[in-house]
Specification:
By secondary structure, the chain is α+β, with helices and mostly antiparallel strands. The protein is built from eight helices and 15 strands. The chain folds into three domains: 74 residues, no CATH class; 80 residues, T-fold (Orthogonal Bundle); 114 residues, T-fold, CATH 3.10.520.10. About 5% of the residues have low confidence.
Length: 304
């Protein structure tokens, strides 16, 4: 049966202080439910590993390392940290997973772990051969909130593929969306996502993530000086994976259009959409590897 004619089933669970939603196109509702439960088991498992709000999580354990100490990590935690480091380098530091204490203060909370008295930041060395992290400088205060949920969506999609789910949409908190479609003529229609109430993105596969000062206010900080972000009011990132789009949509707030285009040229399939003014939702800028231009009203973007 063509996936476009299959009934759509919707499942939701609460994880990582937000709602995770899975929409599955499948002829068998019971089978779709079982597939979603398998994916949600992965969500719960990753929450225990990646959250900084549980003392037993691997991210929390890194906070307590002293220089010279090493912690062996699970494959998933290591992979998420490694990708976060790659995104930090790719964006010139505009995305930074090491802002735990600063994020606490921006939310009006007491930092879980204060910065070093000399103002220095913690530092880890990752060993991919042994999946270990060695503390070079303490304290290590990580916050994977800007990449962890997207990383989780990617792992959930892998579970659905193992269940032979050909068409699905995975959503985290409404700000990160990952489309799953089978290749070829039976892929079915693209998922239509509306931006700023006007512009439509036709998402067949890959991810779309949203951020911006209008969405998170002063909770987005510039890692270079710790000040609240002053960039576009809303940003969206299109990428092959949800982890990458999650990291980049935050980085877009701090980079100018030419810097964003440089990142798009380095990462195949990556694009950016910017809304500069809250009162002008119809005026968006689209940035791809080969062009920067203004989107017209009711425009459509096709992301395969």
């Amino acid at each position: 049966m063509n996936s476009s004619s299959l009934p759509l089933h919707r499942f939701c669970q609460e994880h990582m202080t937000t709602t995770f939603e899975i929409r599955i196109a499948h002829e068998d509702a019971a089978y779709a439910r079982q597939a979603s439960l398998a994916a949600f088991q992965t969500t719960a498992r990753l929450e225990k590993l990646l959250t900084r709000y549980r003392d037993g999580s691997e991210i929390s354990q890194l906070r307590h390392l002293i220089p010279g100490e090493t912690l062996r990590l699970s494959v998933d935690t290591f992979s998420c940290l490694q990708l976060a480091c790659e995104m930090q380098q790719m964006t010139g530091g505009a995305f930074d997973p090491g802002l735990g204490a600063q994020m606490d203060r921006a939310r009006g909370e007491v930092p879980m772990l204060p910065d070093a008295t000399d103002g220095s930041r913690g530092q880890l060395i990752l060993d991919p051969g042994n999946f270990t992290a060695r503390c070079v400088r303490a304290p290590v205060n990580l916050d994977l909130g800007a990449i962890g949920k997207g990383f989780t969506l990617d792992r959930m999609a892998e579970d659905l593929k193992e269940w032979d789910i050909a068409r699905a949409l995975l959503i985290s908190g409404g700000s990160s969306i990952l489309a799953l479609s089978e290749p070829g003529p039976d892929a079915g229609p693209a998922w239509e996502i509306t931006l700023a109430g006007w512009h439509r993105v036709q998402l067949r596969s890959g991810s779309l993530s949203a951020s911006g000062t209008a969405v998170k206010g002063a909770h987005i900080l510039d890692p270079r000086d710790g000040s609240p972000a002053q960039g576009p009011r809303r940003t969206w990132a299109l990428a092959p994976s949800a982890a990458i789009s999650d990291a980049l949509c935050t980085a877009w707030i701090l980079l100018d259009p030419e810097e964003i285009q440089q990142v798009c040229r380095k990462l195949p399939g990556v694009q950016a959409i910017l809304q500069h003014e809250e009162e002008k939702p119809r005026e968006l800028t689209w940035i791809a590897a080969d062009r920067i231009f203004a989107l017209q009203e009711d425009s459509q973007i096709y992301a395969d």
